[in-house]
Amino acid sequence: MNCEICGLSDKKFYKVEIEGSVFIACSNCAKGGKILSEVVEGKEESMNRKDLNIEDIYGEDIDFNFSNKIKEAIRSRNISVEELSKETKTPIDELNKVINGKIIPRIDLTRKLEKALKIKLSED
Question: Is the pTM of the predicted complex or chain greater than 0.85?
Answer without folding.
Answer: no
